[in-house]
Every structure is written in structure tokens, then in C-alpha cells.
């Protein structure tokens, strides 16, 4: 069927036939479907945590290999026929359409990770609905208060000498603040290392405001001695632990007895948030275990009780992020667009010039970068390199314009055209970066202690600049493709 389609395209749409756009479009879509399936399979969560899933790295490397092989096969067939070397009549915008088809093909080949990540995230979401996942995350987070949750920072002790961070003679002077060893809750004083001052694990499904309200609710249980509420929380938590067949020697009554110490809640035992056998082997996951005692220097010791809270938090953190993260960040999508743009320009420049001039241009770019780098080292200015790039780009643009307008001979314009096509997408980012560097004045930072508002604005709008730059490149290519079509008619000498 594809052969029949290609024959019809050859007769009616030779440009689409020449680029092999239709078969490559089919290959690209199948490539995406394949990686959506691979991503969905790799989205399985290992709740036991006995091994770490490294299949994503292998999938990415395999995808790159497949993409490279597809590109090679495509280019062999695409470069067989060069309509610019034949006497086919070409419309004014034919070269732009050709570039656009190359761009679409390149985008399909470089963006295979998009369907992979979507498939993976969909599988991670499929374990529990958002409502159920939120409730489970709430239970796991609150249970951390009675396992090994970290302690909140107390208020600064104003009775001791405290200096704020200051700038003296152009140098920052730092001081260590002192904090109180107690905190107030509901008008009563509690020790810094009491259950009342503990915090919970942050899941993205639970907002900070909601998390604070949840913690406040549990602390009210404690000060009001609502033991049944605490035991109910522990029961719900252990049901989740047992459901996933995680290791623990906790039972609700034993756990409650170890940690519940009404009314001060300061004399309690720590529960190990990991299983020692797995901890020794380091074979369960890459999740870093952070314990409360070494972190804050508390003298309480761990009991002989343990639960694999580290694995549970890691697994549900993945589910939580799957529900809250967007399927595709705009910045990531823009990065794929820019990558496809760069690859398409490399192939397009090869198509509109010659292989010899293309290779010479590659060598010239390498030599110029080396020379610019050496000169920049001598002058000891990081921006010198970028100014040299802008000057060189300007000279090459003037040279190519003179060849195009005078039409006396093509000269070195093939080599220059290659470099211009590769370089112009970088011009706006380079100028933008130089402007940012100008406003990032060290003197300003020293005098006021922060960056200039102009620099902050430029930094905040960096992604917007890249978006505008991409649109600008497409528009410039539209007009440049017309110039290249006319430039091809210039005689060799």
C-alpha cells in the first residue's frame, strides 16, 4: 500500500515523495506508540522495594539507538534524489515546505520520551484513584509522627546575641542563630524533641495548608488524650503496610505503648523506619534513609521495633507525583522543539548545499571555536567568546548578502550558508545572555544585597525568550528559503 501511495505522491506531490514524508510519518507514529507501551510497562511500582528499577535508562538508550538507525535509513533514501540538482520547477515556498517536513520527521524521532513518560505516569496513576491515593498518603504521612518524623524548628532565642547576615567590605558575614529548646502549643510548653513538635512527610497530593491542618488535628488528639483516634490511625497505617507485604514487627498495641507518653510526649522510643537486613544489603531501593536522631542530636534511642516506612514513602511519593505532575511540561516540549530544529537545520543545510561544503563548514566551526576559546582565556573575560561569535556571524551575513546581491559568482558562500543556517538560532539567546550578564552587576549585588530588578525580570522570562526565538527561527527560515532558492541560480564563477 505504501508503494502505491508513494507512486501517487511522485506524480502529484513530488516534494512529499522526495522527503519520504508519508512513510516516515507512519514510522514516527509507530515509534511513539511503541514507547508509550514501554513506558506503561515500566510504570509498575515495586512496593516491596527489594530492587531498584533501572529500566528507564535502558529504554532511553534503546530509543536513541533506534532513532539513529531510522535516521540513517531515511537519509540514505532521502539523499538519493536532490530536486535542486534537477530541472524540476519549484515554487517560491518549496524549500520551506521541505524544511518543515524534515522538522516534523526529526521531532517525531527525538521526542520518543514524551509518550514514554505519559505511559509511565498513566500506569503509576492507575494503582489508586486520586481520592484514595490522597487518603493513603495522609495516613502514611501522619503515621510518621509516631515512627521517625523530623522535628520542626523552634523559635529563635532572642535572649542570646544574634546577628543577621550582613555585607561588610564586599564580603558576606554569616552568624549562627540560636534556637529555643522548647516550643508552645495551645498555651503549654513542650520539649523541642517531643511528639508535639514533630512534622510529617510532604506528599505533593497534600497541600501545605492541608498538611498543617492534618498535623494540628493529630496533635489535638494527643493533648486531649484521644487514644482511640491514635490507635485508629496506627491500624489504618499497618493495614497499608501489610497490604504491600512490607517487613515490620509492629502491632498496634505494642506501637502505641512505645510512643504514647501522655501528657508531655517527650519520653518515647523511636521506631526504625527501615528493615535492617535490607538496609545492610542496600538492595531494596535508592531511597535515602534520613533518621531523626542523627539529624537533630536527640539522645532518645531507637527501639527494637521497625517498619519499612522508607519504602512505603518512596512508593507512595511516586504515586502522589504521578497524580499531581502534568503529563508534559512546556519547558520540556520546547526543548524537544529546539532539538528537532537544530537537527533539521543540519540536514536541510546538507540538502541545499553540498556534502563537501558541509564538511568544510563543520571543520571551520570547530577551528573558530578553538580560536575564540583561546583568545577568551587570554583576555580573561567570559563574554568575549560570545562577542566574537556575534561579530563573526555579522561578517558572514554581510559576505553572503554581497554574493547574493552582486551575483558574480558563488565563491565561498556555500560554506558560509551552512554556518549561517546553524548559527542564527543562537543569536537571540546569546544577545539575551549578554544583556543578563550586563545587569547582573557585582557592584549592584554588593551595594544592595540582591540582583537588579532588570536581571530578575530577564531570568523570569528566559523560557519566553526561547519560545519567541523558536517562532523567530521559523519565520526567518520562511524568507531565507526563498533567498536560498534564488541563490542556487548563481553561477559557480
Automatic annotation (TrEMBL):
The keyword Transmembrane applies. Keywords: Membrane, Transmembrane, Transmembrane helix. The chain crosses the membrane at residues 21-38, 58-79, 99-118, 333-350, 357-379, 385-405, 417-435, 462-480. It comes from the Bacteria. This is ABC transporter permease.
Amino acid at each position: 500500500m505504501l508503494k502505491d501511495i508513494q507512486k501517487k505522491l511522485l506524480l502529484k506531490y513530488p516534494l512529499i515523495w522526495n522527503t519520504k514524508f508519508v512513510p516516515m510519518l507512519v514510522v514516527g507514529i509507530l515509534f511513539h506508540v511503541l514507547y508509550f507501551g514501554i513506558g506503561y510497562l515500566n510504570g509498575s511500582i515495586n512496593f516491596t522495594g527489594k530492587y531498584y528499577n533501572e529500566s528507564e535508562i535502558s529504554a532511553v538508550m534503546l530509543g536513541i539507538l533506534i532513532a539513529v538507525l531510522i535516521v540513517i535509513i531515511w537519509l540514505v533514501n532521502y539523499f538519493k534524489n536532490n530536486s535542486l540538482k534537477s530541472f524540476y520547477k519549484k515554487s517560491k515556498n518549496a524549500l520551506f515546505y521541505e524544511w518543515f517536513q524534515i522538522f516534523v520527521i526529526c521531532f517525531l524521532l527525538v521526542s520518543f520520551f514524551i509518550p514514554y513518560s505519559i505511559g509511565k505516569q498513566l500506569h503509576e496513576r492507575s494503582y489508586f484513584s486520586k481520592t484514595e491515593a490522597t487518603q493513603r498518603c495522609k495516613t502514611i504521612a501522619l503515621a510518621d509522627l509516631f515512627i521517625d518524623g523530623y522535628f520542626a524548628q523552634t523559635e529563635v532565642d532572642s535572649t542570646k546575641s544574634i546577628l543577621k547576615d550582613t555585607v561588610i567590605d564586599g564580603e558576606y558575614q554569616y552568624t549562627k542563630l540560636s534556637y529555643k529548646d522548647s516550643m508552645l502549643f495551645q498555651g503549654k510548653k513542650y520539649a523541642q524533641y517531643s511528639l508535639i513538635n514533630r512534622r510529617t512527610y510532604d506528599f505533593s497530593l497534600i497541600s501545605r495548608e492541608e498538611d498543617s491542618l492534618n498535623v494540628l488535628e493529630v496533635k489535638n488528639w494527643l493533648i486531649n488524650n484521644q487514644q482511640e483516634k491514635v490507635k485508629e490511625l496506627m491500624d489504618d497505617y499497618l493495614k497499608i503496610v501489610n497490604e504491600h507485604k512490607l517487613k515490620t514487627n509492629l502491632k498496634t498495641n505494642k506501637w502505641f505503648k512505645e510512643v504514647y507518653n501522655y501528657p508531655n510526649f517527650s519520653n518515647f522510643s523511636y521506631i526504625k523506619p527501615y528493615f535492617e537486613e535490607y538496609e545492610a544489603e542496600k538492595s531494596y531501593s535508592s531511597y535515602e534513609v534520613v533518621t531523626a536522631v542523627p539529624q537533630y542530636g536527640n539522645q532518645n534511642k531507637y527501639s527494637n521495633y521497625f517498619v519499612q516506612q522508607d519504602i512505603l514513602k518512596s512508593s507512595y511519593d511516586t504515586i502522589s507525583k504521578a497524580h499531581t505532575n502534568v503529563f508534559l511540561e512546556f519547558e520540556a516540549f520546547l526543548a524537544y522543539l529546539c532539538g528537532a530544529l537544530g537537527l533539521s537545520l543540519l540536514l536541510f543545510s546538507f540538502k541545499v548545499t553540498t556534502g563537501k561544503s558541509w564538511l568544510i563548514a563543520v571543520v571551520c566551526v570547530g577551528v573558530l571555536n578553538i580560536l575564540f576559546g583561546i583568545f577568551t582565556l587570554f583576555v580573561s573575560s567570559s563574554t568575549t567568546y560570545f562577542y566574537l561569535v556575534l561579530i563573526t556571524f555579522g561578517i558572514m551575513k554581510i559576505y553572503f548578502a554581497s554574493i547574493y546581491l552582486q551575483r558574480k559568482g558563488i565563491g565561498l558562500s556555500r560554506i558560509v550558508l551552512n554556518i549561517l543556517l546553524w548559527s542564527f538560532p543562537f543569536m537571540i539567546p546569546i544577545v539575551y545572555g549578554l544583556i543578563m550578564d550586563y545587569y547582573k552587576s557585582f557592584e549592584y549585588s554588593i551595594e544592595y544585597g540582591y540582583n537588579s530588578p532588570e536581571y530578575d525580570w530577564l531570568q523570569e522570562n528566559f523560557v519566553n525568550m526561547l519560545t519567541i526565538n523558536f517562532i523567530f527561527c521559523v519565520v526567518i527560515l520562511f524568507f531565507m528559503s526563498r533567498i536560498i532558492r534564488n541563490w542556487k541560480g548563481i553561477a559557480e564563477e
